[in-house]
Amino acid sequence: MTEGVPAPGFPAPMPVKPRRRILRRLVASGAILAAGIAVAFVALVFWPNPTVPADQPNMSQVMTGTSNDWLSFDDFVPGTAIAADDADNDEYECTLGFLGRDGSDAAIGFTAGHCARPGDGSPHFTRTGDEDDAVELGRFTTVQTALTPDKVVETGSDGWSDFAVIEIDPALAESAEGNARIAGVYRVTKVLDHEYLLNNNVTLCKFGFVSGETCGKVSGHDHLTVEAELYSASGDSGSPAYVKLGNDEVAAVGILRGSPEGEDNYTEFSLLAPILEATGSSIFCDDPTCHGN
What we know:
Blueprint: H1 20-46, E1 81-83, E2 93-95, E3 99-101, E4 107-111, E5 124-127, E6 130-136, E7 138-144, E8 163-168, H2 170-173, E9 187-191, H3 194-199, E10 203-208, E11 212-221, E12 225-228, E13 240-246, E14 249-258, E15 267-271, H4 272-279, E16 282-283
Parallel strand pairs: 9-14
Antiparallel strand pairs: 1-2, 3-4, 3-16, 4-8, 5-6, 7-8, 10-11, 10-13, 11-12, 12-15, 13-14, 14-15
């Protein structure tokens, strides 16, 4: 997990809730001025917010621009703070990503691969109002980082894919599908792949437990990874990355792998589609893109 220098988070998208010849010239000039004011007003109201394109209406505001030490919800959801070191320590924290099922139909969650360190225990989380009571989320099963010798996702000599699969504890598994909304708000309806990023001017968002929601333009990508100009911080690793579709619906894109170095505000993500394909997993949504083979 790359340590980032604290910087203010990007603001969340806010709802975007005018003598006779001389006289004729003055009237014409006034009409032009009035038209200009009207155009400016329309542009102010309807022009796309740089973090929320105009085709993404009616999105609820979620927490943003924060610097949390820990974040709990009523239950585990994508965006929850998790840690796999000692519950009394919590010095190496990450964010829970998307929820779904593996090939055997067991409930699973995703996070960054480097969040599953050798020697650590099972990941845990806490619930709102009871932050002193650590709840075991499950156990790491599949883990891949740049250093993993036998790659699940084939990366080639120069590529990387950084992810971990958490098998949800059986005592919690029945709640997984009902908890699948990002930050308890955004419902995932599809998964976007490299081809979509290649052919569209994409604004990507992420929700991490430290910095909340931040959004920015995609600045680079290949068949395994995507980079976007958005702020994240140490502890946001594992965050779900998504594109807003409107009406509190989003398309899943990836899992946060690396935070900015210095103040460059470029954040790296492992694409979700090849991870689902390689692991035979799915996330909780009905579209065929949500299911790996």
